[in-house]
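Task 17 of the worksheet. Students: predict the tertiary structure of the chain below and write it out as structure tokens. Keep your answer in the requested format; marks are given for formatting as well as content.
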Amino acid sequence: MKDRAVTSISLEFDSNELLPVLFGESNEHLAVLEKKLGIEIFGRGNRIHIEGPGEGVQVAEAVLGALWAKIQNHEDVGMAEVDAALRFARDAEATGRSPGTLPGFGDDRVLIKTKKKTVSPRSPMQANYVKAIGSHEMVFGLGPAGTGKTYLAVAMAVQAYMQGEVARMVFCRPALEAGERIGFLPGDMKEKIDPYLRPIYDALHDMMPFDVVQKKMDHGDIEIAPLAFMRGRTLSNSFVILDEAQNATPSQMKMFLTRMGEGSRMVVTGDPSQSDLPKDVPSGLSEAARILRSLHEVKFIEFSGEDVVRHALVHKIVDAYANNSKSA
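Model answer:
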């Protein structure tokens, strides 16, 4: 049984100048902790006093300590980091561990270093995903929008390329539902397909300077193309990502997976519940998950609404749709 007894602790920090970063603008970080943990936090000088249910106080202490360590390490701390720290603390509680120093939060082993930024997982499942990509040649990231499936995969691809582990990065998506019917769209081929690949471009530009991305694309070190363009190829020494894979047909999925060559790694991302395929066409992602799950070389990471790291409202929308599907 969880400890509901009221308890209190005091924490002292060694730098008044950095405390505003920890507290957030207008103390918004502290306000979020108070609301989500059912506690009260009082600050005076370089000391804060936390009071409330024992479990909430313990989590608040762990979260503030982890955030303070990040600040002292000259890392940015905002609402995203506060939310991430809470996720790791709750996971520790749910698995019967003491939050302590938030095992997994800010762990160097799951930090992804790219040219423009260091990317860190914001939930325990994201941390598992990063570890899986680092240790398996083929990984499936399944789950709803906003869980970081594509973003983290692109970050891992950039890191692998920068470290010389692969010679190129290949990113693809089904350009349109089922047959990728793009002929009716105006413009040349690049203009036709670019809108469907924009999320990949956005993630890349977040991690590499624009001119570097363009240069690498011109040299062929970065390739962004619709899934249909993968047919007949063997992709060696490459980090290959198939995004929005729920919109691939079974034959397209088999074609893609069998493109893997020596020295390559593949990540397949998608939400099996959001296929845009016609109702009479099965999703290749769902079929692959069923057929390949028994292969120990292939790792499946399944995200849920709890892992949504976008705006808080997105989390609620995902949950609302999930509950509607259960009651339908």
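Marker's comment: The chain has eleven helices and eleven strands. The first strand starts at residue 6 and ends at 12.
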